[in-house]
UniProtKB/TrEMBL annotation:
This is Acyl-coenzyme A thioesterase 4-like. One of its GO terms (biological process) is fatty acid metabolic process. The active site is at S242, D334, H369. It comes from Pogonophryne albipinna. Residues 213-425 form the BAAT/Acyl-CoA thioester hydrolase C-terminal domain.
Amino acid sequence: MSMKPLCVKLSVQPSRGLVDEKFTVLVQNLLPGFQLTIHALHQCEDGHSWEAFAHYTADATGIVNVSEDPSLDGTYSGVEQMGLLWSLRPVPGSKSGLRMRKMNVQTPMVVTISVYQGHQTEGFLDQVLLASVVVERWYMAPGVRRVPITDGKLTATLFLPSGPGPFPGLLDLWGGGGKLVEYRAALLASHGIASMALDYLTPQITEETGKMVDSDYFETAYRVLEQHPQILGSRIAMLGLSFGTSVTFGMAVYSQVVKLSCAVCISGSHVQPIGGSVEQILAYFNKNVAKTRFDENNQVIWRNLLLPIPTDPSLKVEMGRLQCPLLLVVGEDDQNWPAHESAMDMKEMMERAGNSHLLTVLSYKNAGHLIEPPFMPFTRASTFKTVTNPPTKVMVLWGGELVAHSRAQEDAWRKTLVFLRENLYGGMQP
């Protein structure tokens, strides 16, 4: 049965928007009960292709609305408005260990959404295409400015929201992979917070001197934010993921320069030698390298390196001294860091010290380590290059389950934005 004479109509609204904005996929002009496959295809900047697909049956009026109708099978099932994004996975035949990350935030993530006849599972390029739409998802909203930081010491990029400001500021730290990763900072600026992405493990100064940065590096970054004419110097936050949380905890509690309005720590731990530099913290982790485990697929599990959580107070940040609101985001199936156990210990420390009113914990069952902005494809394991000398490549198990982790990303992002707005804007919307 050919659908061509029916002129199948596919619409995606909005077809251009931010990556954390939902869209509606609507297929019309179908025959009642018609079986179809909706397919999403994205080619990364590294040349690898990712796809998602779902099987639907048209209703009595010949319509499929992805926001309301259940997928019967595919890379996701059930009613999932954004399943075509968060269930994206490398196309068959791709190399193992891929992780999707946007490197150039000045271009959109382009996704082609297509409709095929019947319930297909493979060979989409060989199938009869009924309709197709190209969708753009951006990390930078119109008007957001990307400003490379030229301070000789820093490897960083500042993203300024649209408008004259002044805006609250945020220092954004990623984890142990190093490099300058900009997409989360760009997205935060799209929500009204001037955000600086900072490379602190592989910055130019380390490449040149061979020495890892110390607290002075982070204090310099903080001062750049504090003194910027379009930033409210009295309203600055830090956000860290993974190893970035180690730095964030240390600066928030011990720095005489960094005075935070609030902090967000995702998938990390307060376990580190007190007053330790980046190099000393890494050395402490490496000292426990014998606790490394491997799963049945030979994927590296590092969560045990910091377990059991030490009772020795010299081996963890004194959370009782924290003076700013803190949001902890943890996945209970994190196989990379003992984030949940660390959060429980921090809660206990702060309760004993009488400052637990500053703490909010978001803990997600069956979520893993890489809790990213919403609708980012789930990565249970991927290739990881260590910052050791010489660097080594390993396949790391991050943990989590597809649906639970995707839900956690959406919920945590929404609550993170609320937390930042409350503590940086004093309840006012940007």
